[in-house]
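Re: that chain you flagged

S.,

Sorry for the slow reply, it's been a week of failed gels. I finally had a moment to sit down with the sequence you sent. For the record, here it is as I used it:
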Amino acid sequence: LREFVKQEKISHYLKQFKISERYSTEDLRNLQIGKLHELLLYLKHYNPYYSKYLQDNEVLLEIKSAVNLYPILDKLPIVDKQYINKHSKEWLTTNSKSKLTKSSTSGSTGMPFELYHSSLSSDIKASLKCRLLDWHGVKRWKKQLYYGCTYSSHKSILSSIKKALNNRFVLNRIVIDITKINIRNLEKEIARINKVKPITIWGYSSFIYEIANYSLSHNVPIKNDKLKMIILSGESHTTYMNSIIHKAFNLEPDDE
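Prediction finished late last night. Pasting the structure tokens below so you have them in one place:
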């Protein structure tokens, strides 16, 4: 249903991933080098910023092996959100054949970061998430509980309704805005987990940890025998946090 409604090619890329999983280390390295070479050539031709940068710094994109790949990577700039914002007018690629969709990060660092996705990048990202589920024997249409941030001040009511319907009926995902939850109602979230019985729980590492820690310290057990995966995203997490999550959910968390 998801692939039909959203016109995605998840099954196509999943087949490619399954084939590449059987590659030797050398084959994987050659594949990576080839893909990186394609990316650099794409940036050279379609991205105003990198096109100018590569020319100004006399970077020659002649890649035949990893040996002459590393000197090229050494010449590329280290970028972060501030760097991209500073060069935002030059950052967007100019390939008219690629249909771009505007999106944003959740804003876990305090400010959502706006970016653009092509259908190719969106499909591959979705396919990689589905492969993670497949590795654990979880069907991608099974019920998900997602803890994140839903910054929506810049979105229309119609857009918000469309996203809610997509989450509920296409992705089978319940989205909870953690900015509206505090320590006093964590017990309600444990009750939700026990009642809804999701197959997977996705969310920020710190928030999943808070649920687990509350469960253990207040003797409010998490009872969901259908739960197969805890997927941590958006933040780094420590070995100690993982141990608390494991103890409360009786599952080893995975990193998205």
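What I noticed first: The mean pLDDT is 83.

Talk soon,
D.
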